Amino acid sequence: MTEMSTESLLLTVGVTFAVSYFLAWFYRNNYDPQKILVAYALYLIPFIILGLLLQLKLILIIGIYLFGLVVVIFRNNTYFNE
Known about the structure:
By secondary structure, the chain is mostly helical. It has helices spanning 6-26, 33-42, 44-53, 58-81. Helix 1 runs parallel beside helix 4 (58-81) and helix 3 crosses helix 4 (58-81).
């Protein structure tokens, strides 16, 4: 784990954060949570490929993906409450 690149971790977290915010913003006027969750689920395969290409461990890829899901849920709830 000490041989892992910090840039790889920052890149995957940054991309996940950006995708999460974009999806929450894009579906801000749609009150069906299933659409945003399906859109985020479609992001899983390219994200796993990106993580494996950057030589990240699978558990880190899954953890960062779940972090993005939490961001999507809370940001979508923020738009819903406005």
